[in-house]
Amino acid sequence: PLVLGIETSCDETGVGIVRGHTLLADAVASSVEEHARFGGVVPEVASRAHLEAMVPTLERAAETAGVRLHEVDAIAVTSGPGLAGALLVGVAAAKALAIGLGKPLYGVNHLAAHVAVDQLEHGSLPEPCLALLVSGGHSSLLQVTDITTGVDPMGATIDDAAGEAFDKVARLLGLPFPGGPHIDRAARDGDAAYVAFPRGLTSGRDMERHRFDFSFSGLKTAVARWVEARERAGEPVPVADVAAAFQEAVSDVLVRKALDAAATAGIDDLLIGGGVAANSRLRAMAVERAERVGVRVRVPRPGLCTDNGAMVAALGAELVARGRTPSSLDLPADSSQPVTQVVA
Ligand code: ATP
Ligand code: MG
Ligand code: FE
Question: Which part of the chain is the Gcp-like domain (predicted)?
């Protein structure tokens, strides 16, 4: 099926067009630079930017794909989770298209879309698979038996998301927002063994209660204390080394728990998605350790890991292909749509 997908849950206005597993267009406009000086996404600024970017991004996607809008089989849109005002812009645009063109509308889950996007790169999803979803707002281990109906959480972060930790630590190190890509780059010249930062929820009692959960706020505090101590002593902070050691700690916990969860669930396919899946160390470590235990790893290319419309179209195409019931035309934006609800 030919499906158009719209994404506006945070600060990227994305419109993607796919035909089955084939990506035809992936137009993204980002308001990230408008938020940078605030050190985080400002919801009102994001909503306004979506309003301004929606129609031009839609036109750009249609032109790139060489598709006329009336040719599409369905419209998919992120209905949640995300920023309420930002989601509303995409949902309103999708409804207008669905009604105007007389096409079915699918309000889809942003997190499931971060997983489904991999089929644009590597073909049909292996089902069941274990998905490690790591992004700016979420860090979860999901058992996926059917990406259109069966997404079951095994664990999640009990405090900060992995991407949030990257962004906060980047700030401590004086790197720009969003920090993930800057830490990734800085860490290339660093020594990952320079400091042994804590691995949250990986030992003792914590493992009994939180075996598949994550915690990154203690790690962030440990980095903050370490940096402060250096500054108090009047010594320079080795940014590359701290970035590398922090990135090592995050990747180590993510990969360890993902492989433990896969083994426990008896699943041989690990899929990594979300913005943090763009991280070069996480990708390399996952491939290396998974190979040792006979688990196959799939990670979409970095450009498809961060927010985009193609991921929404990819999930929409799967819903159409499997004959799932479309959403109602009075579809609401649901800022806290649970990961188990793939279609609203
Ligand atoms: P959610 O998907 O939970 O709603 P979001 O949509 O805001 O959150 P994404 O766009 O999926 O998040 O991911 C953004 C996050 O990914 C940011 O925290 C950013 O720092 C992080 N990120 C992006 N690239 C990298 C990288 N190379 N290394 C580490 N983190 C990265
Ligand atoms: Mg973003
Ligand atoms: Fe996201």
Answer: 23-313
Residue 2 β-bridge partners: 19
CA of 306 to the centre of ligand 3 (A): 6
Do the beta carbons of residue 245 and residue 196 sit within 8 Å?
A: yes
Which residues on adjacent β-strands are paired with residue 16?
Answer: 5, 26
- Cα separation of 88 and 71, whole Å? 25
Q: How far is CA 271 from the centre of its chain?
A: 12
d(CA 111, CA 273): 9
> What does the alpha-carbon distance between residue 332 and residue 86 come to, in Å, rounded to a whole number?
13
- Could you give the 3-state DSSP secondary structure of residue 198? coil
Going by alpha carbons, the residue nearest to atom 12 of ligand 1 is: 136
Contacts of 328 (CB under 8 A, 6+ apart): none
Give buried/exposed letters for 211-239 (b at 16+ CB in 10 A, else e): bbbbbbebbbebbeebbeeeeeeeeebbb
Nearest CA residue ID for atom 30, ligand 1: 180
- Residue-wise pLDDT for 128-185, tens only, equals 999 999 999 999 999 999 999 989 999 999 999 999 999 999 999 999 999 999 999 9
Q: Which of 255, 276, 282 to mutate for ligand 1's pocket (most ligand atoms within 8 Å of CB)? A: 276
CA 209 to centroid of ligand 2, rounded, Å = 32
* Residue nearest (by alpha carbon) to ligand 1 atom 31: 180
| Percent of the chain at pLDDT exceeding 90 | 98
pLDDT at 60 over 90: yes
Please enumerate, by residue number, every residue annotated as part of a binding site for Fe cation: 110, 114, 307
Query: What per-residue confidence (pLDDT) applies to 39?
Result: 86
